[in-house]
Description:
The protein is an all-alpha fold. The protein has one domain (about 1-115). About 65% of the residues lie in helices and about 0% in strands. The protein is elongated.
Amino acid sequence: MVGGEAAAAVEELVSGVRQATDFAEQFRSYSESEKQWKARMEFILRHLADYRDPPDGSGRLDQLLSLSMVWANHLFLGCSYNKELLDKVMEMADGIEVEDLPQFTTRSELMKKHQS
């Protein structure tokens, strides 16, 4: 019976992952590429349990979605934010692997190059 119990546990786990993925899918932006969405969805799913909206409706899920957008915008579009916020989202995203990220040049770097 141990094998049957293990199979049931695996099926339950797979079902839970499928439900979480289906839940997260509603938050995909129409402008996100598949690569951007997969990375952002991983960020969301990783922290979803900690940011579920409590019964008082305090909007914790909105906060998670905002943090995921900050992280994705910084990574894929080169947007900059204050240090505390970037530190927080980078810590939350620690371990999420994203390949072939774009390289950005800051305004300061462009001005230095132009002045030389």
